[in-house]
Amino acid sequence: MFAQVALEQVPDQLFTYLVPDELKIRVGQKVRVPWRRTFHAGYVIHLTEESPYRPVVPANGADLFGAVPARGIRAIETIEDPVPYFSEGTIRLLRWLADYYSVGFTLALKSALPSPVRENGSRPKECFIIAPRLPLPPHLPPLTKRLKTLYEDIVRVDGGRMSQLCTEFKTTPVTLRRLAALGYISCERAEIPRNPLAGKRLLQTHAMTLTTTQAQALDAILSATKPILLFGVTGSGKTEVYMQAIAETLKRGESAIVLVPEISLTPQTVGRFAARFGKTVAVLHSALSDGERHDEWHRIRRGEAHVVVGPRSAVFAPVCRLGLIIVDEEHDSGYKQDESPRYSARDVAVVRAAFEGATCVLGSATPSLESWFNATQLGKYRLVRMAERVGGSMLPSVYTIDMREASRPGEPIPIFSQPLLNAMKVRLQRGEQTILFLNRRGYAPTFQCPRCGHVFACRHCSAKLTYHAKDDTLRCHLCGTWQRPPEHCPECGATVFKQIGFGTQRIEQVLRTILPNARVIRMDADSTSRRHSHDELLSAFRAKEADILVGTQMIAKGLDFPNVTLVGILAADRSLNIAYDFRAAERTFQLIAQVSGRAGRGTLPGEVYVQTFQPNHPAIRTAADCAYEAFANEELCERKTAGLPPFCKLACITFVGADERTVAQTAHTIQGKLEACRGLQVSPAEPAPLERKEDLWRWQILVRASASKAIVAACDHVLPRSERVGKAVRTLVDIDAVFLN
Ligand code: ADP
Ligand code: ZN
Questions:
Q1: From the CA of 690, how far away is ligand 2's center (Å)?
Q2: If we measure between CA atoms, which residue out of 467, 419, 460, 421 comes closest to residue 440?
Q3: CB neighbours of 53 closer than 8 A, spacing ≥ 6?
Q4: What is the DSSP string of 463-495?
Q5: Which ligand is nearest to the CA of 242?
Q6: Is 363 helix (H, G, I), strand (E, B) or coil?
Q7: What 3-state class would DSSP assign to 92?
Q8: 232 CA: nearest ligand 1 atom
Q9: Are the beta carbons of 543 and 315 closer than 8 angstroms?
Q10: Which of 106, 238, 413, 724 has the maximal Cβ count within 10 Å?
Q11: Cα–ligand 1 centroid distance for 203 (angstroms)
């Protein structure tokens, strides 16, 4: 038998090895194979009886088959672990992934293995477990008085970890080992399980009695024959439906995967699943330590956990007998991986479910237009609606405030409009909480000289610097470089600078002056950089230790605070005017709807104030009415007219290099070659919206076609995968591109 093996260290090629008769090889196993003069770890991808060498049939008829391998083909050395790392289904999925996203197979394989598993650098910590021998074997040598007391103590507590016993009974490992050598106790090596939920006290919850709408949704999921788009307003009880669908899946002896956006992987979300399903829940996300991720992954692979909760990479979790995949907040752009392979975990989930005969549920209050189109026009998904909040709590009242009229003539535009300010004061008096949302961190987005208009920009990127008041720095949010604000304008020498616009830090500061009694918590990438700070800030807010939560996107999703009755969206149109991003309107709508959904989730009614300069823009207008369907249908018409996704497939090819001219030339050459391919609509090569990043120049070509296959075939033809990592210019092919920067 022969095995095709993928080696971690050798990209984009499979190697054939002979399987020794004594090895019971299975597809997906991790093996050790000889490679050049050393050994490498690899994964068995395919088994075949056929020799990769064609038999040579010489004239005399003798069959030389088998003679070649003796020298030419080497044998697998050992099996590293009998339990496969990949199921046949996963391997099929990874082959699809490589083909669809136009990447090498090894790269696809890597994305399915968390790095701590790949590097295996973090084997679980070990400890020694001491247990008294009971009953004692006969004829043991007598003990000294001290050892006898120690032995009796160990019997009393029924043993335990060596380190614990040492502290408790003031003894040493040496003494314990002596006692073991004398035969009174046993001392065995064991792994210390590292569990991200360990030490968390969770009260078990039980299934709730479903509302009629919820029960219908659950039925639809349990009898699904195609993917389900669960379109449920915020607070409609989608999570409860997911949990009952999972419970049913477990009853059938199958496993479930729940994907959530990284940002809403708060203890709140994870806790809800853990409280319902206990130890069978495994959590996979990047905030875990390497050791925790390593252990959780292997726990899943060994079939010890049957519910996996995690961000996009958890779509590859090595569960046994997959029955259900849930993609919560399916519209979230965080499901798209922004490095190669640039897969969309939502789409991978749909494909994986189809391959493995599982059900896929895409849930959202604001579905992506792609999914909406698939459900309502192509019939690929079944649409299930949940239009009301559980318990009949009302969706919040949304007020749009036209900021063009918010200031008196000649005065600057205020940060807070009068109605929003009044509403905040009312909440303070009533002891209710407010969330203020602003899509920009830092203090002020631009730092400008009032005399000559000079704007400070990053030296390495085409981005303006943001002023951060806390540490008095100008920072680039793209590459992270920072500098002190200069004393003089480098252009004209003036000394006074003006900060234009505002970020979360400035909001926090302004609140301190206008509402001095309000307790404020700020949540953004700057305030949550420590490992648990995200959880701590949210718990504090939940415990009503603050009146106002100011934050960026980070607070838009999934949070459920019953005492929040007011949400202020400070610059609703900030994301609207990004000319290059055809999804700007969709994103703005989603953001407003999601943030609004944080208000009035308890028994108290909620209010939302949307401050905007474009109150009549369709995205703002429909979001204020919580009218998703109106928005989606209107926006779909626009996309159709413009020939944009979901009416076609779009790929973005980016060229990156240090020398501007070479980058531009390469882009133009490739543009020409792509134009010669049939069935493609190729946009002219142009500098990317983010033209320079970290000292590298970036150019772009957008390619559209009716099917991704056509684009991938053309790219593979014009730009073979192996040539994309050229020395002077690197090429990135992004199929179904989401971020067009
Ligand atoms: P969504 O995920 O759609 O935003 P959730 O599942 O978070 O909604 O539900 C909102 C709130 O309603 C939660 O506090 C949840 O505990 C509660 N809830 C959900 N389903 C029920 C039910 N059938 N009966 C009572 N309360 C429910
Ligand atoms: Zn920069």
A1: 11
A2: 467
A3: 65, 68, 69, 72, 73
A4: -B-EEETTTTEEE-TTT--EEPPPSS-TTT---
A5: 1
A6: strand
A7: helix
A8: 3
A9: no
A10: 238
A11: 17
CA atoms within 13 A on the CB side of 301: 22
Ligand 1 atom closest to Cα of residue 242: 6
**Separation of alpha carbons 230 and 361, rounded Å:** 7
CA angle 620, 625, 626 (to 5 degrees): 95
Residue 117 banded pLDDT, cuts 50, 70, 90:
confident
Encoded amino acid at 180, one letter? A
Measured from the Cβ of residue 158, the count of other Cβ atoms closer than 10 Å reads: 10
Closest listed ligand to the CA of 696: 2
For residue 27, how far is its CA from the centre of ligand 1 (angstroms)?
Answer: 42
Separation between Cα atoms, residue 28 and residue 19, nearest integer Å: 14
Q: Are 305 and 280 in contact (CB under 8 A)?
A: yes
- Averaged pLDDT score across all residues of the chain: 86
Tokens of 524: 């953004």
Distances (CA, A) of 200 to 243, 272, 275, 278, 426: 20, 12, 10, 11, 37
pLDDT of residue 69: 43
For residues 68-77, give the mean pLDDT: 69
- CB-based pocket (< 6 A), ligand 1: 208-211, 214, 232, 234-240, 390, 560
Residue 205: how many other CB atoms lie within 10 Å: 15
User: Cα(568)–Cα(246) distance, rounded to whole angstroms?
Assistant: 36
Tell me if 337 sits within 8 A of 111, measured CB to CB: yes
Burial of residue 512, with CB atoms counted within 10 A of its CB: 0-12 exposed, 13-18 middle, 19 or more buried: exposed
What pLDDT is attached to residue 53?
Answer: 64
Lowest model confidence (mean pLDDT) among 89-103, 212-226, 304-318, 433-447 = 433-447
Answer for the pair 316, 112: CB distance below 8 angstroms, yes or no: yes
| Torsional class of 99: left (φ above 0), alpha (ψ -120 to 50), beta (otherwise) | alpha
Phi, psi torsion values for 616, nearest 5 degrees = -95, 0
pLDDT of residue 57: 47
Q: Which pLDDT score is estimated for 663?
A: 95
Q: How far apart are CA 326 and CA 257, in angstroms?
A: 6
Q: How far is the CA of 238 from the centre of ligand 1 (A)?
A: 7
CB 422 within 8 A of CB 654: no
Question: Which of 705, 701, 611 has the alpha carbon at shortest distance from 655?
Answer: 701
Query: What's the token pair of residue 652?
Result: 């973005």
Choose among 711, 713, 695, 583: nearest CA to 653: 711
The one-letter code for the residue type at 161 is R
Q: Specify the pairing of strand 548-551 against strand 433-437.
A: parallel
Mean pLDDT over 419-440 rounds to 93
CB 591, CB 565: distance < 8 Å:
no
Both structure tokens of 37: 């003069």
CA-closest residue to ligand 1 atom 26? 390
Q: Which ligand is nearest to the CA of 269?
A: 1
- For residues 197-211, average pLDDT: 76
Q: Where are the alpha helices (DSSP H) in 431-557?
A: 504-514, 533-542
- Rounded to 10 deg, the angle between the 708-718 and 660-675 helix axes is 120
Name the strands in the sheet holding 382-386, side by side, starting at the edge strand that comes first in the sequence.
281-283, 307-310, 255-259, 322-328, 359-364, 228-232, 382-386
Angle at which helices 628-642 and 584-596 cross, to 10°: 170
Residue 701 near residue 668 (C-beta atoms within 8 A): no
Pairwise CA distance, residues 256 & 258, whole Å: 7
Q: Per DSSP, what are the bridge partners of residue 436?
A: 550, 568
d(CA 117, CA 273): 24
pLDDT in tens, 349-382: 999 999 999 999 999 999 999 999 999 999 999 9
Find all residues with CB under 8 Å of 564, minimum gap 6, and list them: 432, 433, 434, 435, 549, 598, 599, 600, 601, 602, 606
How far CA 1 is from CA of 4, 70, 287, 296, in Å, comes to: 10, 14, 43, 33
